[in-house]
């Protein structure tokens, strides 16, 4: 979660490699009846800058099409869930490349989320930290740090891994 590095610090583990870096991801929803134009996720080719997968088309639980997320580094870890309407045009231009039916007026600011990454801009991508801290004197204190976007998808596998560590 967003404060998993701080929880680790609270018990006395001050490992700089555990420090989280917040990245905001915004979404714009597609209206004007065009949200039914896709029936599955649509992804562009990922960027080389390692900030994310790029603006892709996804469907929510109500089959509404959303475009996102972008990746905005939050250097001061300020939690801000506002969607900046000034990003509307960049979402439009990014999605128009693979969704030619999209028009600028189809997009509305929708939602955002904060991803807890282990890397700053231009750093190499790092995987989740799943570690028993017994070597630091904390038997069965399992750190789970930097679990971002695929964390929900992999939560059962993460739980299985934690069970293996403990048992």
Q: Could you spell the SSE succession in H and E letters?
A: HEEEEHEEEH
The share of residues in helices is 10-25%
| Structural class by helix and strand composition | alpha+beta
Biggest β-sheet, characterized? 5 strands, antiparallel
Which stretches are poorly predicted, pLDDT < 50 over at least 5 residues? none
Question: Summarize this, please?
Answer:
17% of the residues lie in helices and 24% in strands. The chain is of the alpha+beta class. The chain is elongated, with a radius of gyration of 18 Å.
Question: What does the model show?
Answer:
17% of the residues lie in helices and 24% in strands. Strands 1, 2, 3, 4 and 5 form a five-stranded antiparallel sheet that branches. Strands 6-7 form a two-stranded antiparallel sheet. The chain folds into two domains: 4-19 and 123-166, no CATH class; 21-117, 2-Layer Sandwich (D-Amino Acid Oxidase, Chain A, domain 2), CATH 3.30.9. The model has no long low-confidence stretch (mean pLDDT 92). It is α+β, with helices and mostly antiparallel strands. A hairpin with a 5-residue loop joins strand 2 (56-59) and strand 3 (65-68). It starts with a helix and ends with a helix.
């Amino acid at each position: 979660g967003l404060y998993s590095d701080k929880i680790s610090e609270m018990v006395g583990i001050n490992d700089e490699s555990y420090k989280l870096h917040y990245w905001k991801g915004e979404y714009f929803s597609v209206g004007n009846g065009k949200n039914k134009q896709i029936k599955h996720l649509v992804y562009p080719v990922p960027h080389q800058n390692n900030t994310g997968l790029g603006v892709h088309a996804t469907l929510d639980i109500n089959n509404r099409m959303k475009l996102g997320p972008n990746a905005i580094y939050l250097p001061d870890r300020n939690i801000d869930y506002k969607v900046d309407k000034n990003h509307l045009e960049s979402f439009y231009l990014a999605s128009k490349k693979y969704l030619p039916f999209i028009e600028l007026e189809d997009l509305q600011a929708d939602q955002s989320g904060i991803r807890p990454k282990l890397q700053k801009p231009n750093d190499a991508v790092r995987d989740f930290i799943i570690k028993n801290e017994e070597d630091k004197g904390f038997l069965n204190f399992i750190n789970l740090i930097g679990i971002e976007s695929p964390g929900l998808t992999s939560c059962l596998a993460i739980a299985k891994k934690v069970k293996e560590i403990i048992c």
